[in-house]
Write a structure and sequence with these properties.
Keywords: Signal. With about 500 residues, this protein is an alpha+beta fold. It contains 11 helices and 27 strands.
Length: about 500
Amino acid sequence: MKKALLFVMIVAITLTLLPTATGISSVAADSDKSAKIETSKTDTVKVETAKIEKNDGSSIKIIYPVLSGFTSAEKINDLLKNSNLDAIGTVRKEQSYLEEYIKGMPQKIQDPPFASIDSSYDYNKSGDILSFVTNTYFYAGGAHGMTSLDSYTVNTKSGELYSFSSLFNSKSNYKKVILDSIKKSIDKEKNMYFEDAKTTVDKANSNYKFYIDGNKLVIYFGVYELRPYAGGIARFSLTAKELKGLLKDDVYNQMINAKPLEKIRLNGISAKTQFKTYEKDYVLMVPLKTTADILGYKVGWDSKNGASIAGGFIKNNVDTYYTTGSKKIKLTPAKVIGNVMYVPVTYFSEVLKEDVSFDGEALRLFTKSTVTPSQFDTQSTEFIKADSAEECADLYAKAVKERKGVVQYGLMSAKLREANKKGFEELNWVTGVSSPWVTTYNVKDNGNGNFKITFNWATSAGKSPDTTVTLSVSEVKDQQYFEITSIK
């Protein structure tokens, strides 16, 4: 369990950089169609939404954007793929630790904990500037999980992927203005922050994590960086108007008339219908019919049984929910206010199994219009991190035998991934050939992180010549897992 706790800490750092069984689908980013963002008469930016989902001990659900139509789209897509793969590898490793821990307990646990990752995203456009944020919740046992954000901001016309400093005129005093603004915000709510919060901001040295939400620049710090867990992610917003003269002219002109995202978001962007919600005992209550309509459900009414949806009935002031063939689930009771029935937002996620979530900042809904899943995403759900050099070498050998290119790729360092990516893509991530095939392999530890792997091959006609590969494996700095740094 000690290893599991260490991995949770690692994930909290790493993620700030990220149908049942093996169902992998994609949904379009504007109702049932992908979102097209007009950048010029000759250039159209497209945002589609892919989904990776698997439940086999651990629970994996990652909803992420797939970009096209501008020069740096592929680069960002690769960053997201790598982030998703690493997150999946970590959560599956955590699950193995939990299972090991549970096996060693003297009594059987009725509802054992399981590792999970649940991630979705938002995006907004400010002229030619496209900015999106992935919102990830990771759980690996314990009292609570960890929430993290990752963000990317790009100019779709020039292809520039912005760093924080590249937004500003280098000769301006933007560093001081922004630092003073953040510290002023902290001073207004001192009881919400750690005593050394302002010192932590100083140490960032104006190299902040950020995203652009319409006419606002949002700077954020991860959970536990500035305040306790209950305080969540600390965000500090400054409008384009406040930053006039500090931002580069092009950035300012793109932002000044753009609109921030609204609370209700459909497929990553503001929903056209912004409906009323309210909170009861820390539970968000949403209008049943309006929300159901957006997700493609029909709601009927029966004077005796109440609202009918998906084969179940919902009654005013009753806390039981179900659908055809499902078990009854108890949630916050439904409530009729005026002529509108409200239900807890979790009704849609836990009973109808829809991709609906609320994190205190936004209500996110994703529809299920599917497109062809990628081989990369399909294989990625089988990747697991290695917590020793020996395991890393063995996992690689096994992946070669099973022709799983994504698993091989996942075990590699960033440099090796980049060098081998094109070759894997040409093979559509299925390595080797149908004949000859690997029958067995032997991994020999030569010491100092070096391993010699001998692969035994065969065809339908009999044995084929053996081949050997030499790997160099090393521990990733500040993280408790290992990666392959060279293959010969």
